[in-house]
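Hi V.,

You were right to ask for the full record rather than a summary. Here it is.
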Amino acid sequence: MSEFDFDVIQRSWVYLFRDGMVFTLKLTIMSALGGLILGTLLAMCRLSGIKPLAWAAGTYVNLLRALPLILVIFWFYFLVPYIGAWLTGASRPVAVGGFTSALVTFTLFEAAYFCEIMRAGIQSVPRGQLAAGYALGLSYWQVMGKVVLPQAFRNMTPILLTQTIVLFQDTSLVYVLSLTDFLGAAVKVAQRDGRLIEMYIFVALVYFIMSYAASLLVRYLRQRTSIVR
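Predicted structure:
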């Protein structure tokens, strides 16, 4: 068995982080923001008094949460070009690219999880504050936007960040689409230089350090929010 080669990591350092990690962080941040916005809207729909709207949102959330993420990735990779053609009226599937397909997939998939988090956050706000908002003449959406959601976001920030950490780890699944995320970049280096062990250990170490550091931030925020309460 050959000795552990640290030089392969040093030689590929710039490529791994400039191309791979930048791609991973970009996909994570954009998917988290999109998923949070869509998930918040879904949560408001689920809690609304309009039963068809609540039923549709609930069906969407339950369906996405019941499917393996890698299956959803494949679905949207092949379906998004046809959806784009349908929306634009094109006669042929629209070339959207791997990144766009992955971004749509993770945004829609994570929205189902963010929806449940935000729904719990909204329900954690005392009902008396909703009644007070209605008494002031505010509509349902105004009460949500000005009274409930600011408190719900504060209450759920640690859990939202925890879900974002999970999303950061899940983005490594885009390797099935041959996209150059951090793991994909490491695999290319490993196959090129024949150093699979070194690269996989290095990738695992980087993911651990970043995820653990983020979890410490979540713990700090959880303590801060509990003190505020």
